Amino acid sequence: MNEKVYYQDKICIVTGANSGIGYALSEELLKRGATVYMAGRNPEKVAKAAEQLSAHAERVHTLVVDVTKQEQVQQAIESTVAEAGRLDMLFNNAGIGATLPYEKATLENWKAVIDTNLWSVIYGVHAAVPIMLNQGSGHIVNTSSIAGILPPPFQALYCLTKYGVTGLTESLRYEYAEKGLDFSTICPANIATPIFQRGADGSVNDKVRIPDDAYPVDKAASYILDRVAERKGIIIVPEEPFTDIWKGYVLGDEQVEAELLKQAHDRRVSFATKGTYY
User: Fold this and answer.
1) Is 158 a catalytic residue?
2) Domain range spanning residue 12?
3) Which of 184, 196, 239, 271 has its CA 20 to 30 A from that of 176?
4) Which runs of consecutive H residues, i.e. helices, occur in the chain?
5) Is residue 41 part of a domain?
6) Among 158, 163, 215, 223, which one carries the catalytic annotation?
7) 8-state DSSP, 235
8) Please, what's the largest Cα pairwise distance for the chain?
9) Domain assignment present for 99
10) How many domains is the chain built from?
11) Which neighbouring-strand residues pair with 92?
């Protein structure tokens, strides 16, 4: 199937659509002919994001929803189905970053990261699967991370949630393969988005910069949607060198092990001297 045709006339919900990967996915979905319900917690921000895509006005809708609240996620999905008649695709994309020394993480930090990165995905899947089973079709795309298949040091909170997202999505991919439902996991590495500057407590740290080697978010969105259309399970972006690093880690490659240990050392020194991880 042509990767562009796959999205034509599809009804899609994208959470975390205000900015970053969520916004880029929304824009690319619209370019490919989908109808997109852009979901975000802040009414002003999600309205502004939708306004920026006014060229597709007849196919852009907004949903104000706090994805850490199960009843709000349920209502958003059900209201979309009531209005559009179906739900073809759900992109559980909302998330927050968390890179900090484990010993400095509070239980409040843990709760915030788990609620946003993991429970939100569970809520979305819980609401969407019965609808899609009733339809006999549907595709759920959950945003994990490269930290959902590799264990970067100083990201224990983040890794917990993202490994959970990857495992959940992969398990369901096989469970529902004979039921007409598809599942994909997005595993982005460094993508040029504001997530680097947002802490586990929701604060913004302007001292933290987006890495110089970060992959352009628009290119990431296009690549992701091409792979989703192929019904690929785990989608690593950018593909290289991270696919090889992941394979090396799984196989116990000594070079990958050494690099992770070096990264741990460098980040600990950086935290001690600059207060950030790089």
Assistant:
1) yes
2) 5-250
3) 239
4) 20-31, 43-51, 70-84, 107-114, 120-135, 156-175, 217-229, 242-250, 254-274
5) yes
6) 158
7) E
8) 56
9) yes
10) 1
11) 142
